[in-house]
Amino acid sequence: MAEIVALKSTPAEGPVLAVLDKGILRLTLANPPANALSIAVMEALTEEFERAASDKAVRVIVLSAAGKVFCAGHDLKELTAHRADADRGRAFFEKTFTACATLMQAIVRNPKPVIAEVNGLATAAGLQLVASCDLAICSNASTFCTPGVHIGLFCSTPMVALSRNASRKQAMEMLLTGETIDAATAREFGIVNRVVPPEYLNQTVTKYAEVIASKSPLTLKIGKEAFYDQIEMGLADAYAYTGRVMVENMLARDAEEGIGAFIGKRSPEWKGE
Description:
Layout: E1 3-6, E2 16-21, E3 24-29, H1 39-53, E4 60-65, E5 69-71, H2 76-81, H3 90-108, E6 114-118, E7 121-123, H4 125-132, E8 135-139, E9 143-145, H5 156-162, H6 168-177, E10 181-182, H7 183-189, E11 194-196, H8 198-213, H9 217-230, H10 235-250, H11 253-263
Parallel strand pairs: 3-4, 4-6, 5-7, 6-8, 7-9, 8-11
Antiparallel strand pairs: 1-2, 2-3, 9-10
């Protein structure tokens, strides 16, 4: 039976749910209709990603959401309420965007692959959440935008993740116009990997997760870390770095086992070492 865990949150903000089944940890934003990233929700998500990082039972993480909106971004009502503070909200705003940066980096730096399962609108920090995941699969009913420019608040932090997925021109198109793009355009821009009918979304994501979960967890950890490290380097540095990574990977027990299994035409038995 799948293990179900309700993460820390307040009743007003709704729970973030975690279900672990056969190595696949499914995290669900369960605060419709907006599934907003309040401080409580971001901290709960970060806590769960950090826990999963060291949990050998977790092989792959899927991030999904309940309702018609995947995530509407930051909780603007929560932010606005702190304008009445003595510092006009500065301390709370800093806390919010620090929590957001911590969450996004907890996804990128997590040794476990993270797949976004999107069925609905992902806007502002919600799009940032999708773009921060290693893979993203969405329904053809999904839409995406960075609309901050409409309300006088440029989507500067979502820009970090967006500009690492889409080309510069595509990212700037979204950031400067604030217009919504459909699922097909999101795939063209590189924000999502695949677009499927809603009725096949969960099935497709689960298939991806199961395929990835069948691989050596050590190899996945090594590869994901190396991917994000080398992509920020110059060409020569990237080759030097990944060459060292390959050597260490070759010396790992799982590489020896995997290559031996391939040569011997048998299934490998991963030990994660």
